[in-house]
Input
Amino acid sequence: MNPGKVIILSGPSGAGKGTIARHLLSREPRLSFSVSATSRAPRGDEQEGREYYFLTAGEFRRRADAGEFLEWEEVYDGLFYGTPRAEVERLWDRDRVALFDVDVVGGMNIKQVFGDDALAIFIRPPSLEVLRKRLVARGTDSPERVEQRLARAGRELAFVPRFDVAIVNDRLDDALARAERLVRDFLRDDA
Ligand code: 5GP
Output
């Protein structure tokens, strides 16, 4: 197989990227999750090296300055997220296809690096109103934080045309099936 292929999942927070990522990982054995580094604190039962590599802001900066990230972003005020180059190499050494869950700017940057070897999928909510309801129902964000995420989501939607494909996450089952088909087709020649 071609060890150079990657799958990018991007889209507003709350659109369902995480759910779709977990589904794809459970259905497609060639995929492995690319674990990002972040300067935010662990949430819930998140574990070091599973969801993220958790770094202090200072350590994150040092690694960014040393060029250790393929891309990195200050996704929220004061919170940094980045894709370690070593992570992608680690997955390729194991003949895996890397799956990224990143914000839309990070997604576009990764697409630029890998070109046709990357399938860039934009996961979009049916509408901003539905997204608001989901963020409120999730209950992990304060009302101000929900408004911030919505404002950001509006700006992120402008990136849709730059992705290879967009999936509207209206009915989750349909979105999961569509994502699975797209990934299978993209990896078909590699069997
Ligand atoms: P959360 O804090 O909810 O886990 O993630 C916040 C946002 O950061 C999500 O949109 C997630 O996809 C994005 N993100 C996670 N890792 C990376 C990364 O390595 N690079 C970029 N650019 N965004 C990331």
Summary: The mean pLDDT is 93. The pocket of guanosine-5'-monophosphate is lined by residues 13, 17, 36, 40, 71, 73, 75, 81-83, 101-103, 106 (CB under 6 Å). The first strand starts at residue 6 and ends at 10. The beta strands are 6-10, 31-33, 36-38, 52-54, 69-76, 79-84, 97-101, 118-124, 165-168.
